[in-house]
Design a protein that fits this description.
6-stranded mixed sheet, 159 residues, Nuclear Transport Factor 2, Chain: A, 24% helix
C-alpha cells in the first residue's frame, strides 16, 4: 500500500533520512531509495546535467550499496575514524508536486565532530520523492555544498 504523498509525509521522509545517516543506519538508508534513484553531490553549483560534469558523488543504486559497504568496512579509513554527525534540515519549499512525485528544496546544516574538532557543512538540497506501492522513496537527492568549489576534505560520510 503506497503512502499518500503530502508535504508533511515528504518532509518526514527527509527528516527520517537525516536521522538514519546520523545514526549510521546505512542499511535502512538504502531502503529509502527508489531503485532508479540518484544521490548527487555536484562540484559546480550551477550544474544541471550532472551526468556530464565532475561530481563529488553521482551514485545510482549499485554505487550507493558500494559506498555503504565501504562506510561499514573495517578497512575504510572513514569507517575507522567516522565523525559523529548531527544534521538539521529546514526551509522546505515545494518546487513541483503531483499525486505521484514531489520535489522539494531545503537547507541542511551538518555538524561533524571528530578528533576534538567540529566543522559545519552547509548545503542546499533538492530532493525528489516518489510514491510507490512500498511507500515513499527518494528518487533523487542533490546536495549542493555552499563551499563545493573550495577544497573539501573528510567527506567520508553521506551528506
Amino acid at each position: 500500500m503506497s503512502t499518500i504523498l503530502t508535504l508533511e509525509n515528504a518532509v518526514n521522509l527527509i527528516w527520517r533520512e537525516a536521522d538514519m545517516l546520523d545514526r549510521r543506519d546505512y542499511d535502512a538508508w538504502l531502503d529509502l531509495w527508489h531503485d532508479d534513484g540518484l544521490y548527487i553531490v555536484p562540484i559546480d553549483q550551477s550544474a544541471d546535467d550532472y551526468a556530464d560534469v565532475l561530481n563529488y558523488a553521482y551514485d545510482d543504486a549499485e554505487m550507493r550499496r558500494k559506498r555503504v559497504v565501504r562506510l561499514k568496512s573495517a578497512f575504510s579509513m572513514s569507517a575507522l575514524t567516522a565523525a559523529e554527525t548531527v544534521r538539521t534540515v529546514s526551509r522546505f519549499v515545494t518546487v513541483e508536486a503531483d499525486s505521484e512525485a514531489m520535489t522539494l528544496r531545503a537547507a541542511q546544516q551538518l555538524v561533524a565532530y571528530r578528533r576534538d574538532q567540529s566543522r559545519t557543512i552547509a548545503a542546499n538540497l533538492d530532493v525528489k520523492i516518489v510514491s510507490t506501492p512500498g511507500g515513499l522513496k527518494l528518487a533523487r537527492k542533490v546536495v549542493r555544498l555552499v563551499n563545493s568549489e573550495d577544497a573539501v576534505s573528510s567527506m567520508g560520510y553521506l551528506l
